[in-house]
Amino acid sequence: MVVDISSRAAKRLNEIMAKDSNPSLALRVTVQSGGCHGFQYIMSLTSSNEVSSEDDTVFETDDGSKARIVMDEPSLELLKGSTVDYTMELIGSQFKIVGNPAATSSCGCGTSFDIKL
Are strands 68-72 and 83-89 parallel, antiparallel or unpaired? Predict the structure, then answer.
């Protein structure tokens, strides 16, 4: 798998799918320029019918939970080898990218990163 999905992220995605009674939900992860380190992670829920077979890559857990992550090609190039995790901290809970091998530094909250060109 080019991008991994942690068991916590898969569990949370499944909880969201069950709560919304929508088994076709997936987490879309994109990278945009911006943030305090040059690039920022943008995450949103999307439905499978909004996924482009030409432009998007879908990653699904292999544990049978049907948790899915969707990425466009430019974002995937910057996130190869990363893991999508779900964290619960005092400041809130969120999906988060961890272990991004392309990132040379990141902000304290983990929502933006820098790469070496």
Answer: unpaired
Neighbouring residues of 96: CB distance < 8 A, sequence distance ≥ 6: 41, 84, 85, 86, 87, 110
pTM greater than 0.85: yes
Report pLDDT digits (tens) over 59-102.
Answer: 999 888 889 999 999 999 999 999 999 998 877 889 999 888 88
Reported for 75-82, long-range contacts at CB under 8 A and 24+ positions apart, including other chains, are 75/29, 75/30, 75/31, 76/2, 76/3, 78/31, 78/39, 78/102, 78/115, 79/3, 79/29, 79/31, 80/2, 80/3, 81/2, 81/3, 82/3, 82/4
The CA-to-CA distance between both ends of the chain, in Å, stands at 24
For residue 112, give both structure tokens.
Answer: 């933006």
